[in-house]
Amino acid sequence: MTATSPDTLTIITTYQCNAACTDCCFECGPTVRGRLSLAAMRRHIDAAVAAFPGLRLVVFSGGECFLLKHDLFAAIAHARSVGLRTRCVTNGFWGKTPTQCRQTVRQLVRAGIDEINISTGHDHQHWVPVQRVIRAAQTLVARGIFTLVTVEMDTPDSHCLQQLAGDPDIGRLLRRPALFRLQCNSWMPFREAGRMRRMLNDKSALHRGCSQLFHNVTLTPRLELAACCGLTMEHIPEMKLGPASTAASMATRYYGQLEDFLKIWIHVDGPSTIITRLFGDAAREDLRDVVHICQACAILHQHPEIRARLQRRYREFVPDVMSRFYLRHHIDSGSVPATGAPVQANPDQERSL
Question: How far apart are alpha carbons 41 and 278 in whole angstroms?
């Protein structure tokens, strides 16, 4: 990735989902309507290829992207036809029966899919029994498709990760690391009634820069371009870049971020570090229960006192942050990026902060 080209296009195909998880980051559910048409997906894939020479991967997500049925498989095939790798993120509901599972995987193979990510855990398993996930993973791996199963962090009284890790079928898959992986991710509450989760022992990722920004560009079901597909993206208006349907408009929206100092700072240092640099030890209280970088990003954008201090003080951090940003991408790409003017204080930028 260079500073002037993302390597991943994420297509949020729909906000509709067969599940109605309590703490869904995108507020998805069975009653949510609206989805991208096959024509729109093809058009935006072509536009992204023309706009971004560093593009390598298309991720189809949701909601539940497999609700698009044949349109999903056709979109995967189109992405492959223009030289891109492909990944789908799903809850694996289509593993309901052996026959349905085999039929779905057969169509994925024909389309040319490279990777499937299956999400499961305490909330998901209210709607998609874990046996469907296991069946889907077995069938995918048997056909040579790399499969990642991600388990949401357990509540104090749930043991989904332990049960999956101890399942003999999963155990056999784990002996094929080139084709299968099992991991656990942080899970954050989006409502006051959200269940408390166990804490990850290693919280070092909270203090790193955001790898989504500038690596990824996202198309939403509303035909808007977004800066990331992070868990709190729908809760942060500043992550929406605006409508884009052509290569020129996609490039304009994406490259405009190079004049947004806050996005660059989040990319370089991460939201937790920014809050700490602004408030010192006083930031510990705001960050005490934070379990995910996206959660910290939402706090950074939504907390009135943090926003006010950003507006007052961000100029003092510009030289250091921008120097490290351009140095990093000079090293990564072999040359200083040619796109993007030096960041200057201006009224529009101050409003976005």
Answer: 41
What is the bridge-based pairing of β-strands 224-226 and 240-243? antiparallel
Other residues' Cβ atoms within 10 Å of the Cβ of residue 338: 8
Reading the block at residue 309, the tokens are 């201090």
Contact 26, 234 (CB under 8 A): yes
Q: What are the backbone dihedrals phi and psi of residue 276, each rounded to the nearest 5 degrees, phi first?
A: -65, -40
What's the rounded Cα separation, in Å, for the pair 328 and 112?
A: 34
How many other C-beta atoms lie within 10 A of the C-beta of residue 320? 13
φ/ψ of 195, rounded to 5, equals -70, 140
pLDDT, tens digit only, all 353 positions of the chain: 445 689 999 999 999 877 767 766 666 677 778 899 999 999 999 999 999 999 999 999 988 999 999 999 999 999 999 999 999 999 999 999 999 999 999 999 999 999 999 999 888 878 899 999 999 999 999 999 999 999 987 666 678 888 999 999 999 999 999 999 999 877 666 555 555 655 555 566 778 899 889 999 999 999 999 998 877 777 889 999 999 889 999 999 999 999 999 999 999 999 999 999 999 888 877 777 787 888 889 889 999 999 999 999 999 999 999 999 988 776 665 544 444 333 333 333 333 33
Say which CATH architecture domain 8-254 belongs to: Alpha-Beta Barrel (3.20)
Spatial CB neighbours of 172, under 8 Å, sequence gap ≥ 6: none
| Consecutive H or E run containing 51 | helix 38-51
Residues 6+ apart with CB under 8 A from 276: 283, 287
- Coil, strand or helix: which one is 61? strand
Q: For the chain, which residues make up each domain, given as ranges?
A: 8-254, 259-352
How far apart, in whole angstroms, are the C-alpha atoms of residue 97 and residue 131? 10
Sign of the Cα torsion 246, 8, 202, 207 reads negative
pTM of the model: 0.86
